[in-house]
Amino acid sequence: MPRCMDCGNDTTFSSSAIPNGAPWANGPYSGLVASFSEGQVKHVENMGAAYEVAQEAFQRPEGYFDTCHHCGSANLQWP
Questions:
Q1: Residues 77, 79: Cα–Cα separation, whole Å
Q2: Could you tell me if residue 66 is inside a domain?
Q3: What is the pLDDT along the chain (79 residues), one digit of tens a residue?
Q4: Which of 10, 22, 26, 64 is the most exposed place for a label (fewest CB within 10 A)?
């Protein structure tokens, strides 16, 4: 599971490559947000990505989730 080297977050990350499909809804800035627990993706919130992209992100998270959802940093460490 990733870890933010700036704030220590190890639970919620987003994808900078997928814009939010509804930015006016005052939601997250990314269209894909993942929750991690015990080293695995537990949930992916999809707000704008194609279903296939969301499925691939769930299966290969290190290729998608590159931004800390808490502080916005891209300074992440993956095991």
A1: 7
A2: yes
A3: 899 999 999 999 999 998 877 666 666 678 899 999 998 999 999 988 889 999 999 999 999 999 999 999 999 999 8
A4: 26
